[in-house]
Specification:
The structure holds two protein chains of two kinds. Chain A contains three helices and five strands; from the N terminus they run βααββαββ. By secondary structure, chain A is of the alpha+beta class. Chain A has a five-stranded antiparallel beta sheet with strand order 1-2-3-5-4, with helices on one face. Classes of the chains: A alpha+beta, B alpha/beta. The interface between A and B is medium-sized, with 28 and 23 residues.
Chain lengths: 135, 100
């Protein structure tokens, strides 16, 4: 599979993720469960960037590359927002009763649960989040 | 996402059709909110046609549960599809929420 690149310049563009994954699925024959989970992880990662990486009135942008190496699919998100390493966020406690449950932190928790590996780099004032999953 | 609301034997049933994500979870919240604040009905989210949910949608589920349980009103999810159920399991929400 050739490397694919996409640009997202607004949070509303996450609506394009299902279409991108549908095409990927046609090419790689991925299960609908896998597509669902990848969609969820990508949405949560992009929401984090659009909500937290940029000041309110700044131009917001995330790029995504999709690569296949062997049976590993790599999703690489790059943004030029403030330095933020989501992999360092503490895990949410999913055993707490409803009254004590918070929604914050659930996004990165889902990403870590779905993906086989999640790593972060800060290079040239950019955040680079690499997510890998077996296909 | 489309929502259809029906009164079923005194329970308000919300049929959630489609995807609930960051772009439309506020819409779901705004539709449900008046029913949480007023009335004394139990509320059921029928998820037969809920094909996708992200944490923003889970937030609306949790919010609904909290408001209703404070008022001693019932809240349950029914006919949850396997992929959505797996997210509820992954996040521990299946232990908090009533799933029928």
């Amino acid at each position: 599979m050739e490397t694919k690149s996409y640009q997202f310049d607004d949070i509303s563009k996450i609506a394009e993720i299902p279409v991108i994954l549908e095409n990927l699925s046609d090419e790689l024959k991925l299960s609908s469960e896998l597509i669902f989970n990848i969609n969820l992880a990508l949405e949560e990662a992009m929401v984090n960037v659009f909500h937290y990486a940029y000041p309110d009135n700044a131009k917001k942008e995330v790029s995504m590359q999709i690569k296949l190496h062997g049976n590993q699919l790599y999703f690489i998100l790059t943004d030029s927002g403030v330095e933020f390493d989501p992999t360092k966020e503490g895990d949410v406690d999913i055993t707490l009763p409803a009254e004590e449950r918070r929604i914050g932190g659930l996004g990165i928790f889902l990403i870590k649960n779905i993906m086989n590996n999640v790593s972060y780099q800060r290079i040239d004032d950019r955040n680079i989040l690499t997510m890998e999953i077996d296909v | 996402m489309d929502i259809k609301i029906e009164n079923e034997n005194g329970s308000m049933v919300f049929y959630i059709n489609g995807r609930v994500d960051t772009t439309n979870s506020n819409e779901l919240e705004n539709i449900v909110k008046p029913y949480l604040e007023d009335g004394d009905n139990d509320i059921i989210f029928d998820c037969s046609d809920l094909t996708y949910i992200s944490s923003s949608g889970l937030r609306v589920f949790l919010y609904s549960f909290k408001v209703l349980s404070a008022k001693k009103r019932g809240f349950s999810l029914r006919n949850v599809l396997p992929d959505v159920l797996s997210v509820l399991n992954m996040t521990g929400f299946s232990k908090i929420l009533t799933i029928i």
